[in-house]
Amino acid sequence: MVINLITFASNLQKKAIVNSSHEVLLTELEKYFTVNIVPYQDMEKIGRDEFSLLFIATGGVERLVSQFFSVLPRPVVLLADGAQNSLAAALEISAWLRARGVKSEILHGDLVEIVKRVFVLYNNFKAQRRLSGSRIGVMGAPASWLISSNVDYLLAKRRWGVEYVDISLDRVYDYYRQTTDDAVGEESAELASRALACREASAEDMVKAMRLYRAIKRVADEERLDALTLSCFKLLEAVGVTGCLALSLLNDEGIVAGCEGDLQSAFTMLAVKVLTGKPAFMGNPAMVSVRNNELVLSHCTIGLSQTEQYILRSHFETDQSIGIQGILPPGDVTVVKCGGECLDEYYLATGTLTENTNYINMCRTQVRVRLNSPVDYFLRNSLGNHHIMLRGNYEAMLDEFFQVNSCMRVS
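Above: the chain's sequence. Below: its structure in token form.
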């Protein structure tokens, strides 16, 4: 891990004295990172994908930092150990930056805590860089019932650097028709053989769903997509096949894939994957119990890698084609959603997956989650329908990430 220390020091101080004053701090950092000392004059030579801190080495550099305001790395993180009046200068600089709407933070104090914080900031920075430039394919259009899940493409690109790409479903239909049953027969049989059971779904349904997967995967590869969201019900009307199996397999392969053309959920799933490395489950809050502080999340697709076992079913709403009933292990989970038209709000909670339910009147994969925060958020202040769940407790990591990007937490 490489970090650049963009160094600001007063001309009144001799370089040798400045370096010796911070020897303890620099030695500690060099135990964990490759540290590059970069004079502030060379700041513009640093690449946009390189992680940098402002090293306030002495006092008297406040105005000097302000002169480089336009090229300072964002967010601005000031490293100051207190020697040579460095902390006093950092405090003044930080206040000046905040008055101009720029987030800033001072790293100071216990060296172990400074190192821990640098690791967090480094991981956040790398996640932001991976997210920036990502392409989210919108195959078809958002479902008509998602009236509160729109995203302004331009504002999302300005805030996050992601690009939403509209893709006609006609390409998917063409590739689906070009894919023969024989081309996917062996793969379909292998997948069915690993299922705990096959209930409503037929072998013909399985082959058709696998052909659709191949078609969508081909479009995703051609468009260099990092994520996609699919107009599932339009597909079903046109070719009689649901996207549930295709989305499941795409998520397993690392291409984030969501349902119903939900733009906000596709972004949330992508952000989660980039930050944690974990795939996620996109679900409908189907039941909420304020008394027990629980909710049931359900949907007809989930990445098979997230399950302990899976059952091949039909799609719940239409009783057609393929749906997936995933059985997930109990344990800690995180529920998250990034919302708002410019993706500047988020909900975040942790809880425990206590049960895989099997209600006949909701989507096939169903999980009961007992939250650690009030579940009445869903009834009072929800950011919309779909929410994203991933296994494990990632509250601190995700909260830090969204806060750094100036998002407002909703509860």
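The first strand starts at residue 2 and ends at 8.
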